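Researcher: Please generate the 3D structure of the following complex. Treat every line as part of one assembly.
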Amino acid sequence: MKTYLECIPCFFKQALEAGRLSGADEKAQKRILDEVALNLPEFSLASSPPETAKIIYGIVKKITREADPYADIKEKSNKLALGIYARLKKKVVSSRDSLLTAVELAIAGNIIDYGIKNTLNIEEELKRILDREEDAIRKEGSSIFDYRHFRAAVKRSKIILYLGDNAGEVVFDRILIEEIKGSGRDKNIIYAVKEKPVINDALRKDALAAGIGNSASIISSGVDTPGTVLSFCSKEFLKIFKRADMVISKGQGNFEALSDCKRHVFFLFMAKCPVIARDAGCKLGDIILLHKSR
Amino acid sequence: MKTYLECIPCFFKQALEAGRLSGADEKAQKRILDEVALNLPEFSLASSPPETAKIIYGIVKKITREADPYADIKEKSNKLALGIYARLKKKVVSSRDSLLTAVELAIAGNIIDYGIKNTLNIEEELKRILDREEDAIRKEGSSIFDYRHFRAAVKRSKIILYLGDNAGEVVFDRILIEEIKGSGRDKNIIYAVKEKPVINDALRKDALAAGIGNSASIISSGVDTPGTVLSFCSKEFLKIFKRADMVISKGQGNFEALSDCKRHVFFLFMAKCPVIARDAGCKLGDIILLHKSR
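Model: Done. Output below.
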């Protein structure tokens, strides 16, 4: 996805938020915004938002010298989600179409991220997800949900690359990965995380904490961008990305980074930003399963 | 009010909005944002937001060469509000405390502005205001409402300076001005508008279209800032501002510009922005009558 002009005010908002979380005082916060501003004329609208975000979070890090301001939030998210793992699992196992329910929950798990950023009550939101009737998770109005293709692809694929998104959400990913793994002994699932901290994106330790290591091999994509920007990925990752039978991409950041890439990808995300909703052709808040094939 | 860091992303949002309304294509919109960005390091947080807004709207005007992008919106707002003038008047006349109702409506008229910017249904909003029970307009939760002081000041004041805010809202101001004028023959009311177009702020022609000329003399403050920034005002206006027995200041922009000034002022506004609500000590959406005396 290209960068839209509406993303620009949002870049400043994100820089301010990250600066504050990193403990910057008002003067340092202004310095962060000033430096983002000075870089703005160089931002290309042809780049994807995560590419620009790399510059922005780099500025915050340089000025505050805080490498991982979201560390506490990530840990809290993992704990919260692990606390409901058993109930999520029960919900999947007892449903008529367990793969469908696992997919829906994996996308809905994205709400943790949203909750943190908008100070919603995360526990309330999770409860709401858990209390929903079977098949009702996305009935609130999703317009794009290519589940039939997804199910067929899972069935025929041996090497499945799963691109993680945020901490906390990794526990929901685990549920879906276990469901896929359970559908056939031949499945080789590779779960990709970010190389270095950026916002609340999951790292290797978050995937390990969530227990994903039992069902998938965990690799780093090599990036520290909030989305898997291919030009920054490691050679090892790119080889897998190219050869995998199926790529499952979680979250908005990965959609932004990969929506124009040259292979078929299943994008699973909650449309939490009006610009992304417009780009994807859905409504704000929709639970999306979008199959892009090139 | 000082400029808060949260105002900075909002400045970019406003520049983009004004650029689009001025017919700028995507390239010109990016040029606008780039030029705002290049000026950002010079923005002082000690300045009030309307002072900075002057620079921003100046950039939009320079690049788009469109002097009054909100002209159509202003005309539409005036027409809409004039269309319900008779009903507003009836509501005031038939109420137990007509001055109180006129004050409440004058503040609630600020919703027109909000409606335009957030594409709410303005007519719906106006209907909601009109349908409310007497005294219930601000009962939705206002925390600051110095009506007793306001009523006493109206009673004892001869020269009253009324600082207008937006087009459309001027019709609501007319209702309050007529109410004040009706309370005593000795009242000399002066209604101040902006000198040149800025956003949807009322100009002389909007005040005239609203029919304010029958109850008040209309003057220009001399500014083209979205708020009466004293350092930019004309000498003539400043003389009146200093000598008036009472100053009634409408809208957020005027609060931002004058909340730290050295005379007592009655601020009437709807808190439509979280930063202003926090600064004033109220909740978002509150209908505020704030008496500041120095």
